[in-house]
Design brief:
This protein is an alpha+beta fold. It has two domains: 21-105, no CATH class; 127-463, Beta Polymerase, domain 2. It has helices at residues 40-49, 71-86, 90-100, 115-141, 145-149, 183-211, 225-243, 266-279, 296-299, 316-322, 327-332, 350-361, 368-381, 398-415, 419-425, 457-463, and strands at 215-218, 258-263, 281-288, 306-312, 389-397. It has a five-stranded mixed β-sheet. α1 crosses α2. The longest helix has 29 residues, at 183-211. It is globular.
Length: 483
C-alpha cells in the first residue's frame, strides 16, 4: 500500500510503521490464520492502517485488520518502540501514539486486568522507577536542591491549607448542584472554561514577563473539558464522599489556566517564586515537592517542582499589555492603570468572543445547550463582578524538564485505569468535525438553566471514560496533585 492510498488516522500524519528489511522472512507461501507476518512491525502497521474513531457505543465500526494480524507481536513492537521514545526518537513517538490510540488493539478494553494492558503498565512502572532512582541520586542529592529550594513555602494565614475553589471568588449560578446526573456540574465546567479562555492571554503574558529575565515560560493551553469532567467523576466526587467537600465540585478546578516555568539555576527559581507573588498575584496555596520530606520516588516517580495556586486579579495595565485598544484601556490607562478589572471589561472583547467560538468548535456533539447556558450566565450575571480567577504556575529546574520528556509516555500508561482510558488519552490529536456556533450563544435567545439530562446524554457517554487528554500542565511529564 503506497502513501497515497494508505488510510489516515485523522491527524494528517502518515502514521504507518516502516518495514524493517532485516526482519523480512522472504517467504512466498500463502499465510494461514496462525501464520506470522514478516515482522512485529507488520502487525503493528496493520492495526494502525485500520484506524477507527472510538464510538460512544464502545463498539468500533469499519473493517478490522485481516485475520493474519495478531495482537502479541503488535504489543512486542510497542514495547520496543516505547523505549526509543524515552531516548527522544520523534518518529517512534508518532508510531507509539498511533498504535495506542487504535481501539482494536485493546481487547476487553474495560478490564483493568487485561493481560496486554497489565504487561504494558508493568514495563512503564519499571522504567519510571529507574528514572526516579537516577534523578534522586544524581540530581536532587548531588546538586543540594533541598538546601536551596526545600524551604520555599506558601501562606500561613488561617484557612490557607483549605482547598482553594473558584467559587470563593466567582459567583456561581443558582442551579441544582446535587442532582445525580451532574447536568448542572457539566454546565459549570463550560462556564469556567469560557472564563478561563477569556483571562488566559492576560495571565500568560503576566507570568512570561515576570520570569523572562532568567526563566523559560511555557503555556500548555487551557485545560481540556474532558479532563475536567473526568476529575468531576473521579477525584472530586471522591473528595465529596471522603472529605465532605461541598458542591459545586467543578469549582475545585483551580488549574484551568496553568503554565510551566523552567530555570537553569536554583537561585533564579527561588527569585521567581517571590517575584510572581508581587507581580502576578497572591499565592493562596503552594506545594513544594523540592522539600526533603516529600517522597518523590513513590509519589511522583522522582519528579520535583513547585506548584503555586495564584489568585489572578488583573489590572488595566495587564489588559493594556495584551489588548491596547480595549475600551477599559482607553478610559483608564492614563489615570488609573492599577484599577482592578471586572469581567465586563474583557468578556465583550472580540478576542474573547473568538476564543469562545474556537473552544466550542472543538467540542463533542451535544454541547450546544451547555454553551448557550454558560454564555448567557456570564453575560447577564458576571458583567459587574470583580475579575478574580485562581490559576496555577509550576516552577521546575532544567534537569526535571529533561525528565518530563523521557517519562511522558510511560506516565500516561501508568496513570490509565483501564485499556479504554489509555486509548482515549492518546486520541487528543484526532481532528473532530467542527460544529456550527449556536445563534443563541452569539446574543440571541437566552437560557438561565442548564440543559436537561437527556440533552447531555451524548456528552456524558462520550466523556465518562475519556481519560486525562494530553492538555495537562504536565503535558511533557507527570501530574502532581496538591495533597
Amino acid at each position: 500500500m503506497d502513501a497515497a492510498s494508505r488510510p489516515s488516522d485523522g491527524t494528517g500524519v502518515d502514521n504507518a510503521v516502516p518495514k524493517d528489511p532485516s526482519q523480512h522472512s522472504g517467504s512466498t507461501q500463502p499465510h494461514s490464520e496462525v501464520d506470522e507476518l514478516d515482522s512485529d512491525a507488520d502487525h503493528a502497521r496493520r492495526f494502525i492502517e485500520c484506524f477507527v474513531v472510538v464510538p460512544t457505543s464502545a463498539k468500533p465500526w469499519g473493517e478490522p485488520p485481516d485475520e493474519r494480524t495478531l495482537h502479541a507481536p503488535a504489543f512486542r513492537h510497542l514495547h520496543h518502540t516505547l523505549q526509543r521514545v524515552e531516548q527522544g526518537d520523534a518518529a517512534a513517538k508518532k508510531q507509539c501514539a498511533a498504535l495506542i490510540r487504535q481501539y482494536r488493539m485493546w481487547r476487553d478494553n474495560l478490564n483493568p486486568l487485561q493481560p496486554d494492558f497489565v504487561a504494558l503498565k508493568k514495563l512503564a512502572t519499571h522504567r519510571l522507577r529507574a528514572m526516579a532512582d537516577k534523578w534522586e541520586s544524581e540530581v536532587y542529592a548531588v546538586q543540594g536542591i533541598a538546601e536551596t529550594l526545600g524551604q520555599l513555602a506558601g501562606p500561613t494565614r488561617p484557612g490557607s491549607q483549605r482547598r482553594p475553589r473558584q467559587d470563593d471568588y466567582v459567583p456561581m449560578p443558582d442551579w441544582d448542584w446535587v442532582a445525580n446526573d451532574f447536568r448542572a456540574e457539566w454546565s459549570l465546567v463550560v462556564v469556567l472554561l469560557l472564563l478561563a479562555h477569556t483571562v488566559d492571554p492576560l495571565f500568560q503574558q503576566s507570568v512570561a514577563a515576570c520570569v523572562a529575565p532568567h526563566g523559560a515560560h511555557r503555556d500548555p493551553g487551557v485545560k481540556n473539558s474532558n479532563r475536567m469532567r473526568n476529575k468531576l467523576y473521579g477525584d472530586f466526587r471522591l473528595a465529596m464522599q471522603q472529605e465532605g467537600v461541598e458542591p459545586p465540585l467543578s469549582s475545585l478546578n483551580v488549574d484551568i489556566n496553568r503554565c510551566a516555568c523552567t530555570f537553569d539555576s536554583q537561585e533564579h527559581l527561588a527569585g521567581a517564586f517571590d517575584d510572581l507573588q508581587h507581580s502576578v498575584g497572591e499565592a493562596i496555596r503552594v506545594k513544594n515537592t523540592f522539600a526533603p520530606e516529600y517522597d518523590a520516588r513513590t509519589k511522583s516517580f522522582g519528579y520535583r517542582c513547585v506548584l503555586m495556586n495564584i489568585l489572578f486579579e488583573p489590572t488595566v495595565q495587564h489588559l493594556a499589555d495584551v489588548f491596547s485598544d480595549a475600551p477599559a484601556v482607553q478610559q483608564y490607562l492614563s489615570t488609573k492603570p492599577q484599577r482592578k478589572l471586572v469581567w465586563g471589561d474583557v468578556i465583550d472583547l472580540p478576542a474573547a468572543k473568538a476564543r469562545w467560538e474556537k473552544w466550542y468548535s472543538t467540542q463533542e456533539t451535544g454541547t450546544e445547550e451547555l454553551y448557550v447556558a454558560a454564555t448567557s450566565y456570564i453575560r447577564e450575571k458576571l458583567r459587574d463582578v470583580p475579575l478574580k480567577f485562581v490559576c496555577e504556575v509550576q516552577l521546575c529546574l532544567r534537569p526535571y524538564l529533561d525528565m518530563r520528556k523521557k517519562s511522558h509516555f510511560w506516565y500516561k500508561i501508568v496513570r490509565a485505569d483501564k485499556p479504554r482510558a489509555l486509548c482515549y488519552d492518546f486520541l487528543s490529536s484526532y481532528k473532530k468535525p467542527i460544529p456550527p456556533i449556536p445563534a443563541a450563544a452569539a446574543g440571541g435567545s437566552r437560557s438561565e438553566q442548564p440543559p436537561s439530562s437527556s440533552d447531555n446524554a451524548a456528552v456524558a457517554d462520550a466523556t465518562t471514560d475519556a481519560s486525562r487528554l494530553d492538555e495537562d500542565i504536565m503535558e511533557e511529564g507527570v501530574d502532581i496533585p496538591f495533597a
